[in-house]
Amino acid sequence: MDHLIRVGEKADEDSIRSLFIEMLKTIYDTDDVKGYDEGYLDRYFNDSEDRIYVADDGRVIAFLSIEVHHEDKDYIYLDDLSVTRECRNMGIGTKLIKKAESYAKDIKIPAVLFHVEKTNTDAMRLYERLGYQIFLDDENRYLLKKDI
Length: 148
Prior knowledge:
By secondary structure, this protein is α+β, with helices and mostly antiparallel strands. It has three helices and seven strands; from the N terminus they run βαβββαβαββ.
């Protein structure tokens, strides 16, 4: 099945929140996790450069949140990526990351960065296949980078 990758909307917020909780439970192997604070996602729905992309097959099955940074060097930061369990290993995460990279090119941002937990070896393999490299060893996680 082909999944539509599109910009997330306010109407997707409940699905995004559920996927975030699912991601945290998977990463930390516990049900004792806390979701987004109230209002946290609003910045993605207010026409700023920050974006949430979702994968949609009639329902939201994955999302990737993107923060745009204009500091010493411009970059985008991939904040959260979650694919619902039954849809993993179908290339959806890859499609979302490629959409983020395309967005970076469109707005003339030269690099993509994000953190991955050191224990998340499946994700690390995916990111390495997509051309990301360890930029910084940040205690229990790595900061990965890819120049666009």
